[in-house]
Each structure stands twice: as structure tokens, then as C-alpha cells.
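Project outcomes to date are best conveyed with an example. Our students and postdoctoral researchers have been running inverse folding experiments weekly, and each run begins with a structure described purely in C-alpha cells. The record below, which covers 161 residues, was selected by the lab manager from last quarter's runs and is presented without edits.
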């Protein structure tokens, strides 16, 4: 089964991140995920790639645009992005000349369209800008995808239909 990810960049404190990681591990086993799709953004996307890598599950990186790497600060953020990009089974670069909200939204839609199900590490609130987690979840619902909502605020996991 192919699983995509959408989620926040800021996941909270170390305890919350550990809880999310444990949830992802549990859900990957539960649904027998065989491949993942991720945009490798800081936070949820990179944590998903890390967990997939830990379980030797291949993933495809969806790169929203040219110069996407420039959205990552020099140092560990950019190093982590490059590390996960190199480990990806494949990288698919969308045809946007530069990072933008539209590029991020199209990348999120690509993840939904090419996945059997979606993991959403999401506080349940509306997106702050086009292409945010709330928008991708809304699109996933419209496409009738199974969405596993991992809420880092309430510490609940539920299925969104």
C-alpha cells in the first residue's frame, strides 16, 4: 500500500515528536505500507522519511519546484533535506520555476493523487496559506482517500472520512 504524508513543520517538543514517531511506526505496520510519498519538508515530511528509512520502506520525494532546496536554512535543515533526498527511491520534480504556495499545494495534491492513503500530522485547523496541511487534508477528503489523522495537540489518532 502506498502512503503519503502531509503535516506541520513545527511538531512541538521532543516528547511530542517521539509520540508522533511512535504513532507513525504503529500505523505503518498496521496498514502494511510498502512505499511512501513525501515532499521532505521540515517536520512531518522528514519524520515520515526517517521512519520509512528505519523500516527499510522506500519512498518517493516530491520536489515542489526548482530551487526548493533554497527554502531550507543553511546547516542542519538543508543537510537533512539533502540526506533524505539522496535516500529516496526516486525524486519527482514538479514544473514550477521557484517555490510558491501554489507549488506546495500542487505537490500536496500530487502526494494525495498518487497514494492509497494519507497520514496527516495535523492540529485540525485551517491552513495558514495555500498548500498547508489543512488544504491537503481537504483535498484528500474530496478525493475520498483514507486519511489517518495524527493530532499532536490532542494526542489522538482517528480516521477522517
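After processing, the design step wrote out the following sequence:
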Amino acid at each position: 500500500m502506498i502512503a503519503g504524508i502531509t503535516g506541520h513543520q513545527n511538531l512541538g517538543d521532543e516528547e511530542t515528536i517521539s509520540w508522533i514517531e511512535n504513532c507513525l511506526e504503529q500505523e505503518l505496520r498496521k496498514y502494511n505500507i510498502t512505499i511512501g510519498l513525501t515532499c521532505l519538508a521540515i517536520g512531518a515530511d522528514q519524520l515520515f522519511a526517517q521512519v520509512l528509512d528505519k523500516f527499510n520502506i522506500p519512498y518517493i520525494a516530491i520536489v515542489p519546484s526548482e530551487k526548493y532546496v533554497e527554502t531550507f536554512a543553511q546547516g542542519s535543515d538543508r543537510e537533512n533535506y539533502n540526506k533524505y533526498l539522496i535516500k529516496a527511491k526516486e525524486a519527482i520534480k514538479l514544473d514550477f520555476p521557484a517555490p510558491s504556495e501554489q507549488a506546495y499545494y500542487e505537490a500536496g495534491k500530487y502526494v494525495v493523487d498518487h497514494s492509497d492513503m494519507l497520514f496527516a500530522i495535523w492540529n485540525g485547523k485551517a491552513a495558514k496559506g495555500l498548500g498547508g496541511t489543512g488544504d491537503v487534508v481537504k483535498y484528500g477528503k474530496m478525493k475520498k482517500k483514507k486519511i489517518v489523522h495524527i493530532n499532536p495537540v490532542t494526542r489522538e489518532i482517528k480516521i477522517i472520512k
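The chain has five helices and seven strands. The longest strand covers residues 2-7. The training component of this project remains on track.
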